[in-house]
């Protein structure tokens, strides 16, 4: 699955999250489902294979790769709901929803692909990262970095509220 396809999938999830309830009729390779009735955000995530047992999902990922997973010490906003799953391509996907339903922070940890982006920023603690903005309504900021043996992709929507520097501070809080 190429990066453009992943970005499109992220957009679909964001659109569903923004509405509070959604009519789900999403068709893509992983987690296909159809619903003729309105669904809550929790129901949509469950239908897509996500769980609220995020610690258990993280532990499964760590056991599979026999490696400690380092996560940010902070989130960009007050988190009301957290969802996670290990996708078909073995990427760990974590979604943090804020009290404000427009707030979505995502972490993807990819064990299979090396960090291939040319860095365009060096954090205060020396990490080389690549930051991009996807011009979609709302703008989505994405930060790519390598940490230990994994590629991390951090993204945040509602970017008019959350500046690039916040995403950088979150990346800096991930230790090895």
In a few lines, what is going on in this structure?
With 176 residues, the protein is α+β, with helices and mostly antiparallel strands.
What key phrases describe this protein's structure?
176 residues; alpha+beta; Jelly Rolls; seven-stranded antiparallel sheet; two-stranded antiparallel sheet; 4 helices
Explain this structure.
- There is one protein chain.
- The chain is α+β, with helices and mostly antiparallel strands.
- Helix content is 26%, strand content 34%.
- It has helices spanning 3-19, 41-47, 54-65, 164-172, and strands spanning 21-26, 33-40, 79-86, 92-98, 104-110, 121-122, 128-134, 140-147, 150-156.
- The strands form two sheets. The protein has a seven-stranded antiparallel sheet with strand order 3-4-5-9-8-7-6, covered by helices on one side. Strands 1-2 form a two-stranded antiparallel sheet.
- This is DUF4367 domain-containing protein.
């Amino acid at each position: 699955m190429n990066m453009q396809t992943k970005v499109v999938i992220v957009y679909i999830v964001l659109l569903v999250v923004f509405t509070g309830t959604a009519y789900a009729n999403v068709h893509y390779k992983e987690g296909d489902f159809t619903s003729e009735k309105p669904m809550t955000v929790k129901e949509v995530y469950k239908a897509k294979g996500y769980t609220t047992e995020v610690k258990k999902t993280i532990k499964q990922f760590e056991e599979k790769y026999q490696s400690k997973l380092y996560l940010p010490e902070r989130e960009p906003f007050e988190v009301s709901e957290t969802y996670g799953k290990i996708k078909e391509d073995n990427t760990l996907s974590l979604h943090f929803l804020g009290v404000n339903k427009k707030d979505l922070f995502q972490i993807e940890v990819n064990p299979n692909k090396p960090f291939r982006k040319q860095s365009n920023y060096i954090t205060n603690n020396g990490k080389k990262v690549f930051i991009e903005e996807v011009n979609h309504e709302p703008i989505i900021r994405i930060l790519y970095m390598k940490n230990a043996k994994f590629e991390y992709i951090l993204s945040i929507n509602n970017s008019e509220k959350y500046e690039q520097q916040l995403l950088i501070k979150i990346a800096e809080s991930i230790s090895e």
